[in-house]
Specification:
about 280 residues; mainly beta; nine-stranded antiparallel beta sheet; five-stranded antiparallel beta sheet; 2 helices; globular
Length: about 280
């Protein structure tokens, strides 16, 4: 893990062993990542990623395992796709100037034998403390690849009291409590894109355990038009996830039949962007 921070904003530990995702995220000295307070899905690759504050789904699949199309051997896309456990090659690193900034490249082998390149750019704005992530994904293989992507932002829910709410224009009534739905866990996925809006925003807070801070998450809706949120309080899990995502909550077959599951052709690229701050 490499420590990444600016004068203002959270201190992040970036995981070179897993696409330079975020492990720990320290806010006012407190690590908000869930650690081992997560569900065990039987996949150590994903367990490792779920422990952290942010991990990335894709580039070939998101959500739970499904059969690889046209493969007679019964192979499946793994839980949350193939990104996790692919190591990153850092190409630029600078924490000496006003902003903290780094860039990395991740060569990915997909579950069906395809190839992809993730070009990742992290920056922390020294004036606002906002963390900015820009991803560029290129299909470097010889066959089409599903254009899918999801960011999992996981927060340890032991930090929350009854005053903590999710807020955003995409939510019914504009606000829901953090412990929405039936116990011990629930999930919803809603359209985040609004006409004319390039970015969507959702907030979580105020979090008294973090000095009253509110987590504000923004994401570009051209590549991530939906917001998925889940929580799990079934022991030992105690976690809430904010998840900007490329597709609604449905299986690959349904999305393909409706024309929603488009392909990234060989040589084509897709771009995704996410920003967050604790204010």
């Amino acid at each position: 893990m490499k420590s990444f921070a600016a004068a203002l904003g959270p201190r992040l530990l970036l995981d070179e062993s897993s696409v330079l995702d975020i492990g720990s995220c320290f806010v006012n000295g407190t690590d908000v990542a869930p650690g081992r307070a997560i569900p065990d899905d039987g996949d150590p690759r994903i367990d490792h990623s779920l422990e952290g504050f942010l991990f990335t789904c894709g580039p070939d699949h998101i959500r739970h395992p499904e059969a690889i199309e046209g493969e007679a051997s019964g192979g499946k896309y793994p839980l949350h796709g193939s990104y996790s456990s692919h190591s990153a090659r850092i190409t630029f690193w600078d924490m000496q100037g006003e902003d903290a900034e780094c860039r990395a490249e991740v060569a990915v082998t997909t579950a069906d034998g395809g190839k992809a390149l993730l070009e990742r750019h992290w920056r922390i704005d020294n004036q606002t403390g906002e963390v900015c992530l820009h991803d560029r994904v290129t299909n470097t293989g010889g066959k089409p690849m599903a254009r899918v992507h999801m960011y999992h932002m996981n927060i340890g829910a032991w930090l929350f009291d009854d005053a903590v709410h999710l807020s955003g224009e995409m939510l019914e009534g504009g606000e829901v409590p953090w412990n929405f739905g039936p116990d011990p866990g629930s999930v919803f996925c809603v359209p985040a894109k609004r006409a004319g809006d390039e970015w969507a925003e959702v907030s979580l807070g105020p979090i008294a355990a973090l000095g009253g801070s509110t987590l504000k998450v923004r994401f570009k809706t051209d590549g991530l038009p939906y917001l998925q949120v889940w929580r799990n309080q079934k022991e030992p899990a105690h976690v809430l996830g904010i998840e900007p995502v490329s597709h609604r909550l449905a299986g690959r077959k349904e999305l393909a039949e409706s024309g929603e599951l488009t392909s990234l052709q060989p040589g084509e690229t897709a771009e995704y962007a996410l920003r967050f701050a604790f204010a």
